[in-house]
Amino acid sequence: MQYAILDCYTDEASGLGVPPYLGTYPRYIYGQLKRDGHSIKYITIDDLRLWKHYHNIKKETLEYQKTNIRIYNLTINKAEDVLEETEVLIIILGVHVPGKYLSALPGTLEEIIPWVKELRCNKILTGPAIFGTQLEGGKEFEKRDLSLFDEVKDYTVNFDKLEDFLLSGVEIITQIPQKRIIEIETSRGCGVGKCSFCTEPLKSKFVNRKMENVVKEVKRYYDSGARMFRLGKQADFYACDRPIEMLQKINSECPALGVLHIDNVNPNSVISAKGEEITKAIVKYCTPGNVAALGVESFDPEVIKENRLNTSPIVARKSIEIINKYGAVRGENGMYTFLPGVNIIFGLLGESKETHKKNMQALQGVLDSGLLLRRINIRQVAVFAGTYLKERGGLKYYHKNKKYYWKWRNQIRQEIDNKMLERILPKGTILRDVYTEIYDGKTTFCRQYGTYPLVIGIKGRIPLGRKISVRVKDYMLRSVVGEQI
Question: Containing domain of residue 446, as a range?
Fold first, then answer.
């Protein structure tokens, strides 16, 4: 049977599938269909937009224009031709952690439904959207009539069954011309599973994937040409199966990696008995520029209690200190080897003006102590059905305090983020392995590949997709201004 996978990109608390990442959903589904003997074509929402919205005409970006990220991530396939012969279309869609993306734009139900409803094939919706989806913070999940779809299906299978067909999915990368960071799943669910806003406990009970199978998947993609990986689809990397041995084996079997990074980390695990040893292994075996996304969410004890958050301000601070102790060493690409990042959410239960004061006090304390934070991710909460937040007030506090958010956010950006950038990247710092990514008028924006990479703006239009070295010249609130050398 002729299948097509339409990847509208996914962003969840536990994993990222927005380019330059290649998420788990399309790879797993491709592998399952391949094992069962079907013919499969992979297309993205960008391919579909190029056909339906731009009539297969891709115009050159003029000097005063911004790169059109709606059609930036095209495959080798033409959507019109693929969908004409498709018998079953599997649509992967869903954002649970809304963010801003430099060179991609996830698809929404509102966008795709008019485009696919007339297609003469069976249509299956899968991905995080089956639990709800929302591309913006400060809203409840997008409500749409799903009767268009012949099935709304959860393709999740347990890890033992997954290994039967997972490696068959490696072929998917032959249909993607751009470089991709392969998002590798190490566990599901959350070992704590109580945070008011989080959808991870709704999707899966906590279970680790066997270390050997993680290494096997990385090795198969490596042998097929992939060189960039993030062990990112989990709630806490420190809690996965034998993380130190996992990193050792990946390095041993894949000796020429361009990127090996992690993502989510529970601060409580960092300060645990094995936390420092795991931290040292991450520094030793991963590539520079690595960031531990610490799920702090708030430094206000009242908010922590109301939302059943698992990290106290004391634990958060101690975890930041431990990661700095081993990871605040500049690597060969110009970035520090391994630094903490902090997640902050606006709109949680119990939030007040005191919440912002406590957040600022904690962040200022980190700055004043000479510690480094690579990234402070501030987002407005999105509310999903079935969560504790939805049951206990939803967007009540978001609406109550929304008028303060721009001021609160801007203060963190100006007084903390900007100072951290100056400390992490003094003027004159050389950054290597930087890739030119998009234009915005006469400015070229670039990044190193990796987890939460720093955005670099360079005056002038440098050919896109080129690897360059950059000297830091100045700073924006969250990004730097550079010059090519």
Answer: 430-484
Instruction: Answer whether 198's CB lies under 8 Å from 96's CB.
Output: no
Q: CA–CA separation, 127 vs 24, rounded Å?
A: 10
User: Over the stretch 113-154, which tens digit does the pLDDT of each residue have?
Assistant: 999 998 999 999 999 999 999 998 988 888 788 889 999 999
Q: What is the pLDDT of residues 424-474, one digit of tens each?
A: 999 999 999 999 999 999 999 999 999 999 999 999 999 999 999 999 999
- At 294, is the secondary structure helix, strand, or coil? strand
Residue 438, both tokens: 């998009």
Domain count, the chain: 3
Rg of the chain taking only CA atoms, in angstroms: 22
Is 160 among the domain residues?
Answer: no
User: In terms of domains, do 317 and 224 share one?
Assistant: yes
Among the three residues 424, 439, 455, which one is the final residue of a domain in this structure? Answer: 424
Question: Do 405 and 434 share a domain, yes or no?
Answer: no
- Mean pLDDT computed over 317-341: 98
3-state secondary structure of 71: helix
- 348 and 219 belong to one structural domain: yes
Q: C-alpha angle with apex 107: 106 to 110, nearest 5 degrees?
A: 145
**3-state SS class at 327:** helix
Q: Are 261 and 233 spatial neighbours (Cβ–Cβ below 8 Å)?
A: no
Amino acid occupying residue 54? Y
- Report pTM: 0.95
405 and 480 co-located in one domain: no
In a domain, 170, yes or no: no
Question: E strands within 329-406?
Answer: 338-346, 375-380
